[in-house]
Design goal:
The complex is a heterodimer of chains A (about 160) and B (about 200). Chain A is built from two helices and no strands. Chain A is an all-alpha fold and about 160 residues long. Chain A folds into two domains: about 1-60; about 65-150, Orthogonal Bundle (Flavocytochrome C3, Chain A, domain 2), CATH 1.10.1130. The longest helix of chain A is centred in the N-terminal third of the chain and has 34 residues, at about 10-45. Chain B has helices spanning about 5-40, 40-45, 50-55, 55-60, 75-80, 85-105, 110-130, 135, 150-165, 175, 190-195. Chain B is about 65% helix and about 0% strand. Chain B has one domain: Multiheme cytochrome fold, CATH 1.10.3820. Chain B has eleven helices and no strands. The chains are: A mainly alpha (about 160), B mainly alpha (about 200). The interface of A and B includes residues 71, 91 and 113 of A.
Chain lengths: ~160, ~200
């Protein structure tokens, strides 16, 4: 909110008053419209993620799917696709303090852990400059890499 | 007094002292073991906020708190040896922790995080030195069914399981690979552990 108490110019104050009045009218109208519309929307076919279950009824339960464990990893659909994660990651934590993905996939440890090394592209800046450390752009692994479950696709994919 | 009655009084006195000593001993011994038992519970460990607000919260996210089979590992299961002599040794070390509690060494989240690496290193050192004895109170290479493990774990365990089956000492112990199994890891843990040879 702007403070205008120490502003003595009448026209400015007047303009402000006008603006406030306009807002009050607009809000009232919008409120009225919503009051009429809300019951319509509820009875209509607008579905939330919860489905069109009534509020007082329990949501439909889905079977929890286990993450797929695939030895050798998933095939990529194209060369530069971030490969999908072929193992359980429920225990992995990524925070300011720790990144448990790196402990297995880093340059130093990947051989010992029998894990594929993090791709070269992860050690580059946007301009293609090579870094000695993992690029900060690649710190949050799950931004690009996702674990997989054997579940029907939620949305059709024609890729 | 005749010498014989004097002897009798002496005897009586000696046996009274002995009896008293035994009773006192039982009370002290019982009390000692009782306090050992009292301080060996999860409630005791998390009765101070330093533990309750930090490590206990983190433990609750892990498989050792809730799991498919409903077996829970509590703080003393991993941190206090089961054998009496090792237990007493650990408890004596714990008095130093009480001293630091009074000093307030880790009484804020920030101080806890700052000091965490030091504490983690000392736990790793202890576990490495005793071949992860506390883990092995519940887990064992010999009882692992590699077929049932996911391949990532099975590949790593395989040589050690065979060593253990052959009665040889496995070259690696649980804590070599399972750091951070129950709590979050401190910043810079990997370099620090490597430097300390852990």
């Amino acid at each position: 909110m702007q403070r205008y108490s120490n502003n003595n110019d009448y026209s400015v104050q007047h303009g402000l008053m006008e603006a406030v009045m306009k807002k009050v009218i607009l809000t009232t109208v919008a409120g009225a419209v919503m009051m009429i519309q809300a019951p319509l929307a509820m009875s209509g076919d607008l579905a939330s993620l919860r489905g069109d279950n009534k509020l007082e009824v329990e949501a439909q339960m889905f079977e929890a799917k286990k993450p797929l464990q695939v030895e050798g990893g998933f095939k990529r659909s194209w060369d530069l696709q971030p490969p999908q994660i072929p193992h359980d990651i429920s225990k992995d934590r990524v925070s300011l303090q720790e990144n448990t993905c790196i402990r297995c996939h880093s340059k130093e440890n990947h051989e010992k852990e029998k894990a594929p090394e993090i791709g070269k592209s992860h050690y580059m800046t946007r301009d293609g400059k090579e870094l000695t450390k993992l690029s900060t752009r690649r710190y949050f692994c799950r931004q690009c890499h996702a674990p997989q479950a054997d579940a029907p696709a939620l949305v059709e994919n024609t890729f | 007094m005749t010498p014989t009655s004097k002897k009798r009084v002496m005897m009586g006195f000696a046996s009274m002292t002995l009896l008293f000593g035994i009773v006192l001993g039982i009370i002290l011994w019982g009390g000692f073991n009782w306090s050992l038992a009292m301080t060996n519970t999860e409630e005791f460990c998390i009765s101070c906020h330093e533990m309750k607000d930090n490590v206990y919260q983190e433990l609750q996210e892990t498989v050792h708190f809730t799991n498919r089979t409903g077996v829970r590992a509590t703080c003393p299961d991993c941190h206090v040896p089961k054998e009496w002599i090792y237990k007493v040794k650990r408890k004596i070390q714990a008095s130093a922790e009480l001293y630091h509690k009074m000093l307030g060494t880790i009484d804020t989240k920030e101080k806890f995080e700052d000091y965490r690496l030091t504490m983690a290193l000392s736990e790793w050192k202890r576990m490495k030195a005793n071949d992860s004895r506390e883990c092995r109170n519940c887990h064992n290479y010999e009882s692992m069914d590699l077929e049932k493990q996911q391949s990532r774990g099975a590949d790593q365990h395989d040589p050690h399981v065979w060593d253990a089956m052959d009665g040889k000492n496995p070259t690696k112990t649980c804590i070599d690979c399972h750091k951070g199994i129950a709590h979050h890891l401190p910043k810079g843990w990997e370099e620090a552990a490597k430097k300390a040879g852990l």
